[in-house]
Amino acid sequence: MNWMNKLERKLGRYAIPNLSRYFVAAIVVGFVINLASPALLSYLEFDAASILHGQIWRLVTWIFVPVTSMDFFGLLFLFCVLMWGSSLESFLGTFRMNVFLIQGILISDIGGLLFYVITWATLGQGMPVYLSMYYILMSMLLALAICVPDAEVRIYFVLPIKMKWMLIFELLYLAYIVFSYFKMGITQYGGGFGIVVGFMMSAQILLAIGSMFLFFWLSKTRLGRKQKKRQKEFRATFSQPRPGSGISQHKCAICGRTELTNPGMTFRYCSKCNGNYEYCEEHLFTHRHVQ
């Protein structure tokens, strides 16, 4: 059992269901605040210098900073965020979804403060970073793609694409943006200071994506030497069915499809059902949980 399972046993009852919806609501509230009083919104933004001078509420209130305009595409993005959050929570469970999002905020806070302190100590001038929830919310889609890479989605509800290809494309796109920021900084300011500027401009991307990969790394179950030995012996005793035997290894509890009847289909167990219930990729997020 890894530390995440132990933490869930102790604190799981305090987890907040549908936490991603609260972040979407916070962004909508921030948009209203910006319309009513843009000056007030400036007191909610992440500002390392102000935080170190006592305005500690900024460690949390930057989640209200609008990540998009409230036009058609902005509302479509927030609607997609609601779907991503619901699907990811169905796969991870409520507690781990809480950890995923809260960890993203904490790592962004720590990274922003450390960057300011380090640049102040080395350059004599603290460099600020801009933080918003945009890339933390986007990381939910990337996390969902890691969990179900063979599931198919439709871009703008039209173009079908498998999640694993979308994950690769999005990571390459974000890498290009980060590279462009560093190139711009080095071109304008030279080597050392240019790298600092590049990190300052791309900090929210690096921190959000880094937090996502850290979450999955920390969620891994690490076995000791004796446990690995027992696992190896168990697998040797109960080996997988021989090819051509007609015996399936996976079967959907709803439709009865198997990897033999539908090659290439992904099957997963549901963490919220009481018992070992396995579902195909079409019913993983739509079934009624067994209690």
State the gist of this model.
With 291 residues, the chain is mostly helical. The protein is 60% helix and 5% strand. A two-stranded antiparallel ribbon has the order 1-2. Strands 3-4 form a two-stranded antiparallel sheet.
Instruction: Supply the number of helical segments.
Output: 11
**CATH class division of the largest domain:** Mainly Alpha
Derived from helix and strand composition plus strand pairing, the structural class reads mainly alpha
The CATH architecture term of the largest domain is Up-down Bundle
Number of domains: 2
The number of strands is: 4
Structure description:
The chain has 291 residues and is mainly alpha-helical. It has 2 domains: 16-219, Rhomboid-like fold (Up-down Bundle), CATH 1.20.1540; 247-291, no CATH class. It has helices at 3-11, 19-36, 38-42, 48-52, 58-61, 72-92, 94-123, 134-147, 163-189, 191-219, 225-237; strands at residues 152-155, 159-162, 267-269, 278-280. The strands form 2 sheets. The chain has a two-stranded antiparallel sheet with strand order 1-2. A two-stranded antiparallel ribbon has the order 3-4. The longest helix is centred in the middle third of the chain and has 30 residues, at 94-123.
Write the layout of secondary structure elements.
Elements (H helix, E strand, L loop, with lengths): L2 H9 L7 H18 L1 H5 L5 H5 L5 H4 L10 H21 L1 H30 L10 H14 L4 E4 L3 E4 H27 L1 H29 L5 H13 L29 E3 L8 E3 L11
Antiparallel strand pairs: 1-2, 3-4
Helix pairs in contact: 2-6, 6-7, 6-8, 7-10, 8-9, 8-10, 9-10
